[in-house]
């Protein structure tokens, strides 16, 4: 077995890499949403000025059979690295995952990182004894957080959406709700970035303590470019305060392909000074409504939250999201 950096601009190689990732991450959870090749490769290739990504492949007889990436944050959280490791199901238990983790650990520690993190999706009833957890613990990682992944079937009845919108509007009469599709207005970009940066601090993240993320209008523009490269469109709903500040936001990633069924919920965040006005419900339901109206082909939304994130979970349960699997995160301090 041979480990080498991946040339992420080699189309044939990336098709083979995608097959490993798709087979490896969908094993035993085939009914869960899967990224398409365009989504996955588009995401890997998209530049993000806030992080450096190191991609490695494990090759047997010239074929890629394992893939690993270390994400090294550059503008904040520079003590941390996020690892992703996947081995093709036909090549497991032969030390490939271990070799990849060892190499990523060298890369991250040489870069001064002291908190190595990563995660995986597993069924609720295997949180204590899943083999992926055994693998992580074998390498000195410990469970740091468990999030609950939830699905919502679309469409949500229009009558429910308008009832929630009315309920939210009654508590937030002073705020204006706006939905932006595919691009975001420059005049509110700085203000939105404040919220996007604070999300990692205020959302519960278990034993890993994140610093505020440095989000800039440039990185926001990069995110929009990434979505487009993935064949997706960003639906961003915001609540504007009377003085024009973005007080709340919610982001959905929606496939443009009319065959695409799965929508991804990214963050929903209400600014600390604007909580208690049902703005979370307001932006979330307005965003869903816009997606249902404009992209009627989509059928399901996936979201995930920390087990202790009571406010967000209560909104999700009200809307009809149901738990489907656990997302387990790991931490190794070096
Ligand atoms: C987790 C994963 C990367 C392991 O890859 P791998 O190449 O099979 O791992 P290794 O052969 O290096 O295993 C090293 C050790 O981990 C533990 N381990 C790995 N798979 C295991 C399993 N199915 N059951 C129990 N222990 C296991 C064992 O201690 C093993 O050592 P041993 O084979 O000498 O007993 C692979 O199963 C995978 O791709 N999973 C899906 C993606 C994922 O969830 N990645 C993140 C995991 S935290």
Question: What can you tell me about this protein's structure?
Answer:
This protein has 334 residues and is α+β, with helices and mostly antiparallel strands. The protein has 2 domains: 112 residues, Aminopeptidase, CATH 3.40.630.30; 174 residues, Aminopeptidase (3-Layer(aba) Sandwich). The protein is built from 9 helices and 12 strands. Strands 1-2-3-4-5-12-6-11-10-9-8-7 form a 12-stranded mixed β-sheet, sandwiched between helices. The two termini are 27 Å apart. The mean pLDDT is 96. The structure holds coenzyme A.
Which secondary structure elements does this structure contain, and how are they paired or packed?
Blueprint: E1 2-5, H1 11-26, H2 37-45, E2 51-60, E3 63-73, E4 80-87, H3 96-110, E5 115-122, H4 131-138, E6 142-153, H5 158-171, E7 176-181, H6 186-202, H7 217-229, E8 232-240, E9 246-255, E10 262-270, H8 279-294, E11 300-306, H9 310-319, E12 322-333
Parallel strand pairs: 4-5, 10-11
Antiparallel strand pairs: 1-2, 2-3, 3-4, 5-12, 6-11, 6-12, 7-8, 8-9, 9-10
Helix pairs in contact: 2-7, 5-8
- Overall structural domain count: 2
Q: Quickly give the structural class.
A: alpha+beta
Ligands, ions, cofactors:
coenzyme A
- The CATH architecture of the largest domain would be 3-Layer(aba) Sandwich
Identify low-pLDDT runs: none
Approximately what portion of the residues adopt beta-strand conformation? Answer: 25-35%
Q: Any idea of the CATH class of the largest domain?
A: Alpha Beta
Element-by-element helix/strand order = EHHEEEHEHEHEHHEEEHEHE
- Outline the biggest β-sheet: 12 strands, mixed
For the record, give the distance between the C-alpha atoms at the N and C termini, rounded to a whole number. 27 Å
Strand order of the largest sheet: 1-2-3-4-5-12-6-11-10-9-8-7
Number of strands: 12
Could you name the CATH homologous superfamily of the largest domain?
Answer: Gcn5-related N-acetyltransferase (GNAT)
Helix fraction, binned, reads: 25-40%
The best one-word shape is globular
CATH topology of the largest domain: Aminopeptidase
């Amino acid at each position: 077995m041979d480990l080498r950096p991946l040339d992420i601009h080699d189309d044939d190689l990336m098709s083979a890499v995608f097959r490993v990732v798709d087979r490896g991450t969908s094993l035993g959870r085939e009914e869960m949403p899967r990224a398409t090749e365009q989504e996955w490769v588009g995401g890997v290739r998209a530049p993000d000025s806030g992080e450096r990504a190191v991609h490695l492949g494990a090759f047997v007889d010239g074929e890629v059979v394992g893939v690993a990436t270390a994400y090294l944050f550059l503008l904040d959280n520079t003590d941390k690295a996020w690892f992703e490791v996947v081995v093709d199901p036909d090549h497991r238990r032969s030390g490939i995952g271990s070799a990849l983790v060892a190499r990523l650990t060298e890369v991250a520690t040489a870069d001064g990182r002291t908190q190595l993190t990563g995660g995986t999706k597993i069924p609720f009833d295997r949180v204590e004894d899943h083999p992926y957890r055994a693998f992580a613990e074998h390498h000195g990682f410990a469970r740091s957080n468990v999030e609950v992944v939830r699905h919502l079937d679309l469409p949500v009845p229009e009558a429910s959406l308008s009832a929630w919108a009315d309920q939210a509007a009654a508590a937030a009469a002073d705020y204006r709700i706006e939905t932006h599709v595919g691009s975001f207005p420059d005049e509110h970009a700085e203000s939105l970035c404040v919220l996007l940066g604070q999300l990692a601090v205020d959302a519960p993240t278990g034993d890993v303590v994140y610093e505020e993320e440095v989000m800039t209008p440039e990185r926001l523009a990069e995110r929009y470019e990434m979505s487009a490269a993935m064949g997706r469109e960003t639906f961003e709903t915001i609540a504007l305060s009377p003085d024009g500040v973005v007080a709340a936001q919610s982001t959905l990633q929606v496939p443009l392909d009319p065959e695409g069924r799965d929508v991804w919920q990214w963050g929903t965040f209400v600014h600390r000074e604007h909580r208690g006005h049902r703005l979370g419900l307001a932006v979330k339901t307005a965003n869903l409504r816009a997606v249902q109206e404009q992209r009627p082909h989509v059928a399901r939304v996936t979201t995930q939250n920390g087990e202790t994130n009571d406010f967000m979970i209560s909104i999700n349960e009200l809307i009809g999201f149901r738990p489907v699997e656990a997302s387990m995160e790991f931490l190794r301090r070096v």
